[in-house]
Amino acid sequence: MKKLLLTALLLPGLAFAEDITIQNLMRAESDTMFRLSMKQNNIGIGELFHEREVASANAPQTVIRPNQDTLYSAAIADLSKPVTVTLPQGDKRFQSVLVISQDHYNFAYASPGSYELTEDEVGTRFAMLLFRTFVDAGDPDDAARAHAVQDGIVVEGGGKGPFEAPDWDLETLAAARKAVNDLAAAVGLESSTSFGRRGEIDPLGHLIGMAGWAGQPARMAEGIVDSVDLNDGETPHVVKVRDVPVDAFWSITVYDADGFLAPNELNRNSYNNTSATPNDDGSFTIHFGACEDGRINCIPITAEWSYTIRLYQPREEILDGSWTFPAIVPAD
């Protein structure tokens, strides 16, 4: 199975745009994402924004293959002065911060505590701080607890900006983005070679990582994107899994032909090891399609559906390939 994460953000071109080359492509993409985050979330440099709901099929989706497992918080930091990020003790739920440079190198922390970030360490003056906080989206009480953990995040220090970057040629950037997405679809995207610190990943993997902008280093999360052969939207499928070797959580999310969450009568597009009902032996059976008979843990499907499996804080047996997630197969 190939690992692939795609981002869909097509923006109109700007006058007097800065030319894009292979040398500055990653910088142009990251600068564009930083600007978009500040605009969409109405935040300035150093200001923290919290999303209080997970992605939904019934709301606009700006990013391909959104997850429904974590709430996002974000800030754009000016590292001309050191920045301190604090993850709270919280209630032991998974929470992380991904530090993304303007050149799309990144690293992450997922333990409570304070972390100092400098321009020398990150490699660029500006960085995105992208926080993920686990939530059981189907449990209103858990959502309230997750919000409280989000509120415990602290970002202190840093410069005050303004954000300084060229006005990139967004028409060329969109064409380059599609080309990289096509390349990633053909050859696959591996977290271990695409996401990490400068010097830890190879140049080609780094380029392909543009197709999964803001993807996490492999030790923080593995993402598996694939489809089944009979993805006609009519043929039901199933997978049974147990003892997934992760220290945080795992999930399966279903998408439509364009990579988005599709509305359905069950209002269900995903399950994780918290929201799914386990079997008596502790394993989990996840069904895809034919949900009208009330089968357990069932996600409706559409024509040309695909899925993403997310493995948060995978253990060594996932990282070295000795354990793989079971295949999703046609139901009997």
From TrEMBL:
Residue ranges occupied by any DUF1214 domain in the UniProt entry: 233-315
Record SUPFAM superfamilies: VPA0735-like
UniProt keyword Acetylation present: no
Pfam families: DUF1214, DUF1254
Keyword field: Signal
DUF1254 domain sequence ranges: 47-112
Alphabetized Gene3D superfamilies for the sequence: Domain of unknown function DUF1214, C-terminal domain (2.60.120.600), Domain of unknown function DUF1254 (2.60.40.1610)
InterPro entries: DUF1214, DUF1214_C_sf, DUF1254, DUF1254_sf
Signal peptide extent: 1-17
Protein's recorded name: DUF1214 domain-containing protein
Organism: Pseudohalioglobus sediminis
